Amino acid sequence: MYTPRYGHRLRIGLMIPCRNTVLEPDAAALLPEGVSMHVTRMPTLGATRADLVNQFERLEESAQLLAAAGVGLVGFHCTAAATIDPSIGTDVATHLGKRCGLPAVATSQALLAALAAFAARRIVLVTPYVQSVNDHEVEFFAGHGVKVIREIGLGEKDARGMESIEPEEWIRQALGARHAQADAYVLSCANIRVAAIIDELEKRLEAPVITSNQAMLWHCLRSARIDDAVPGYGALLEKH
After folding, report:
1. Is the pTM of this model over 0.85?
2. Domain containing 64 — which CATH number?
3. 174 within some domain
4. pLDDT for residue 1
5. How many CB atoms lie within 10 A of CB 26?
6. Where are the beta strands (DSSP E) in 175-227?
7. DSSP at 45
């Protein structure tokens, strides 16, 4: 029987791109009992730091709408935007946290925290993005002492194309990018359907697999001192 998660332990408020259709189903599967997720949509985000800074006023409105729902923390959840440069995600989260009066986190911070949980300093990066977005993300990780030793972008330019990639294709791409020196594999993007294949990939790659939605939900839980083990979606949620 389905048990509603009404958030008596924690309500997570996430700001997501308006075209994201994957986060909510992922959260329904990954969150433990008593934790609920509440979202508000963000407008299409700019591709540069200046573009994003110019959107701060509209982002503040989204964060304040979540705060009005009584959430315990707010997350800025867009991997590409949060990794435009090494500090933009933290800068956005800090700004929004001050404006809405709640703890705030960004996808970039979640990914770094997840990698730190495994002491991972060398990663394979697999994304749905075009090369220019991949380049920003590689730069972001390098700025935090994480070396991308192999990277693949599947060349999708819009959210619908990213969501349309089948889980089997992600398995094929990740296995094809296998690298003996990789400490972890990062499947990056909040709008890709990969939650159900994390366990399988970890077994076949013999390494941790981190995804944007998995890392963000884990980071929100641990930031709120909820340490439930959630099996079935990778070592990050089950063991850290």
Report:
1. yes
2. 3.40.50.12500
3. yes
4. 57
5. 23
6. 184-187, 209-211
7. P
Q: How far, in Å, CA of 79 to CA of 45, rounded?
A: 11
Look up residue 38 and give its DSSP letter.
E
Return the ∠ at Cα 41 (arms to 36 and 47), rounded to 5°.
125
Q: Per-residue pLDDT tens for 16-37?
A: 999 999 999 999 999 999 999 9
In angstroms, the CA 178 to CA 175 distance is 5
Tokens of 179: 């690298």
Check residue 5 and give its pLDDT.
Answer: 74
Residue ranges, the chain, pLDDT below 50: none
Determine the distance from the C-alpha atom of residue 147 to the mean position of all C-alpha atoms in its chain, rounded to a whole number.
19
What is the extent of the structural domain holding 189? 110-211
**What count of other Cβ atoms lies within 10 Å of the Cβ of residue 13?**
27
Question: Phi/psi of residue 113, each to 5°?
Answer: -65, -40
Residue 25: how many other CB atoms lie within 10 Å? 12
Q: Are 87 and 142 in contact (CB under 8 A)?
A: no
- Please check whether residues 32 and 147 belong to one and the same domain: no
In a domain, 2, yes or no: no
Domain count, the chain: 2
